[in-house]
Amino acid sequence: MDGAIETYSGWGRAHFATGPVAHPRTVREVDPGKPAFGNRRSYGDAPLNHGRAATDMTALDRIVAFDPVSGLLTVEAGATLGDLLRIYAPRGWKPAVVPGTGFATVGGAIGMDVHGKNYRDGAFGDHVTAITLLTPAGEREITPNSGAIWKATVGGLGQTGVITRATLQLAPCPGTAMLVTERRARDWKEHLEMLGSDAPYIVGWIDATATGAALGRGIVEEGQIVRGITPKAKAARTIPIDAPHMALNPAVVQAFNAAYYARVPKAGRSSVRTLETFFFPLDKIHDWNRLYGKRGFHQFQCVVPLDQADVLKQMLEKIAAAGVASPLAVLKRLGPGNGNFMSFPMEGWTLAVDMPNRPQVKPLARELERMTFEAGGRIYLAKDALAKGSSIRAMYPHHADWLDEVTKADPDGLYATDMVRRLELRS
Ligand SMILES: Cc1cc2nc3c(=O)[nH]c(=O)nc-3n(C[C@H](O)[C@H](O)[C@H](O)COP(=O)(O)OP(=O)(O)OC[C@H]3O[C@@H](n4cnc5c(N)ncnc54)[C@H](O)[C@@H]3O)c2cc1C
Questions:
Q1: Would 330 be classed as within a structural domain?
Q2: Angle 292-294-296 (CA atoms, 0-180°, nearest 5)?
Q3: Cα of 356 to ligand 1 centre, how many Å?
Q4: Between these two residues, 5 and 230, which has the higher pLDDT value?
Q5: C-alpha of residue 423 to centroid of ligand 1, in Å
Q6: Which region, left, alpha or beta, applies to residue 21 given φ > 0 means left and ψ of -120 to 50 means alpha?
Q7: Residues 163/77, Cβ–Cβ less than 8 Å
Q8: Per-residue pLDDT averaged across 223-237, rounded?
Q9: Is the CB of residue 105 below 6 angstroms from any atom belonging to ligand 1?
Q10: What pLDDT score does 375 carry?
Q11: Domain for residue 249, yes or no?
Q12: Which residue out of 8, 31, 37 has the highest number of ligand 1 atoms within 8 Å of its CB and is therefore the one to mutate?
């Protein structure tokens, strides 16, 4: 099963790593002694294992059982959330929480305890009712009543074993289309107010190049699932080559962002989209990361408590001043955390910003990391490739509980990945 040496990279393409990758096609073929990864949609080094072995779980994507009355679905860990949405929405069900890419697998969504645009519904792990974990000691089924091993597994970076299957409580899905209302937010204050609306799905795009009175301006999108309408699906497009280094220079980004902001009329507008277009807007542009050129990019994402929103404003000022703002900057609310030891979501505001990989980004990221910590917030490990281990361990107050459980489950450190080593999460 061990394939030839392959090259694989984190989504941000700032990291490249090689190692023998196994591609099991059945659960029996899974080697329990190697770290698992899904579609490697984490931007940093969480799903990388430089020079060491790893298991690609994506071929394990079978539906094991589905109850159309309760919406309980047991599925192999390599199934993608996009496929589950496409299969089950026409039957009245959907994954309760999906991130901004449908390429995320069930295993990866558990490993990062991903969040979506519906903050009132919590994180992905809040809707998982059972997980099958494989370790060299054997197979084990865990549930939310299993105590510390559950809390260490959900959001636990794959360090307690290979997730081969999970049972998900799907959420009712009243239709297959999304009624989307877009409105301009003229500044920071208005943006935060609009993100507090009671729409079921809500997300803010921020013009990260805006400064002064316009800082924080953007477009707030509210979504509501509707039935009886079938919007046309748009064909996927591909970025065929790595864009030249200068393609995303500050002047281009500023012009693009101004046009993007102005395309929504002052009075706002409504349209109907497919669920995929609303939930996974970038998935229709294959290889969009090539827009950042060969050097790739970094994404910085943090969450800070509700009363610390101004810190995010200061971060945007620093990003604009460093000339590394890109068209991709997102502001969302997050609901209360779920107590899983390394789970990212906590009640607050989360800001995610892509930055082309230029020399000024590393010191800037350090500064943003410091500001996050001082505000009582935390950095999202699915997006990180630059943080310091000491900060991460301090930002995640249950790190020691996680480490205890991980050490019990994997005493030989078989599942350690590049991220775990870089951040010294297991030492
Ligand atoms: C365009 C885009 C938008 C995004 N938007 C969001 C968002 O809105 N919200 C959000 O929360 N995240 C978001 N993300 C991040 C993404 O959802 C997470 O990184 C997710 O973990 C990716 O899933 P994956 O299957 O590719 O996992 P990978 O990146 O391959 O792995 C993630 C982690 O899970 C572990 N893992 C994976 N599979 C298994 C398994 N079977 N058993 C044990 N461990 C496993 C890996 O070791 C790794 O630590 C986005 C990413 C992209 C590219």
A1: yes
A2: 50
A3: 21
A4: 230
A5: 18
A6: beta
A7: yes
A8: 84
A9: yes
A10: 98
A11: yes
A12: 37
Length of the chain equals: 427
114 found inside a domain: no
Domain that holds residue 258: 177-393
What is the domain count for the chain? 1
* Residues 283-336: tens digit of each pLDDT: 887 777 777 777 788 899 999 999 999 999 999 999 999 988 888 899 999 999
* Predicted confidence band of residue 14 (pLDDT cuts 50, 70, 90): very low
To test ligand 1's pocket by mutation, which of 101, 110, 333, 381 has the most ligand atoms within 8 angstroms of CB?
101
Question: Does the CB atom of residue 82 touch ligand 1 within 6 A?
Answer: no
CATH number of the domain encompassing residue 253: 3.40.462
DSSP codes joined into one string, 284-303:
GEETGGGGG-TT-EEEEEEE
Average pLDDT over residues 94-118: 98
Say yes or no: CB of residue 392 within 6 Å of ligand 1: no
Token output for 255: 């012009």
Q: What is the dihedral of CA 405, 406, 410, 413, to 10 degrees?
A: -150
Largest CA distance in the chain: 61
Q: Say if 292 falls within a structural domain.
A: yes
On the question of pLDDT at 134 being above 80, the answer is: yes
CA distance 260 to 208: 12
> Side chain identity at 252, as an amino acid letter?
V
Strand locations in 335-386, DSSP E? Answer: 348-356, 378-379
Residue 46 CA, ligand 1 centroid: distance in Å? 9
- Quote the DSSP letter at residue 195: H
177 and 270 Cβ atoms separated by less than 8 Å: no
Q: For ligand 1, say whether the CB of 309 is within 6 Å of any of its atoms.
A: no
Q: Confirm whether pTM is higher than 0.85.
A: yes
Q: What is the pLDDT of residue 325?
A: 83
Helix (H) / strand (E) element for 314: namely helix 309-321
Instruction: Please name the residue whose Cα sits nearest to atom 3 of ligand 1.
Output: 100
Place of tokens 């000024």: 360
How many Å apart are CA 109 and CA 35, to the nearest integer?
A: 15
Chain segment 145-182, per-residue pLDDT in tens: 999 999 999 999 999 999 999 999 999 999 999 999 99
The residues, ordered by sequence, that sit 6+ positions from 147 with a Cβ below 8 Å of its Cβ are none
Count H helices and E strands in the chain, helices first: 11, 21
